[in-house]
Here is the input.
Amino acid sequence: NPMPHLIERASSGRAKCRACTGKIAAGDLRFGERLPNPFADDGGEMTHWYHPACAAFRRPEAWLELDDAALSLIENRDQLAHEAQLGVAHRRLPRVATAEHAPTGRATCRACRELIEKGVWRIGLDFYQDGRFSPGGFVHARCATTYFETADILVRLRHFSPALTDTDLQDLQRELRV
Here is the structure.
């Protein structure tokens, strides 16, 4: 009987978020995903730590398993629950990583299979496998709605690309609506 996932205050500042790789500061809330430890002979468990928002975006099924007591600690729990539900409904949505102007013209779009021209908006993808996130290519921003089966990705892009300006987000919004 596995222990449930948890929300708690970080006891030290040593843990890193598995989704964004940023530090989780001492005293900040963190999400702990409880998983079987593949290296334990006794069927032990391990905990993967995330910022609460990162967990809702990247591990939506686990997020939605939280109980009301754990959720009560999180101020924006309703918005994060909505994002997690979107992530379950649209199976590719948890892959949303970053938004950027393509620095070269060498990457191929995973949606349309064409080259992503230098300078156009592209969305980076991260794939989750065996407890790790790995970069998994890009899609044109204009192909994102088709690839993710929703245009509702700006909250995620703002979260994982904090340097985006309001103008950048407006540009991306236009691309998503194409």
The radius of gyration is 17 Å. The chain has a mean pLDDT of 94. The helical segments are 52-58, 60-64, 68-71, 77-89, 144-148, 154-160, 166-176. The longest strand covers residues 121-129.
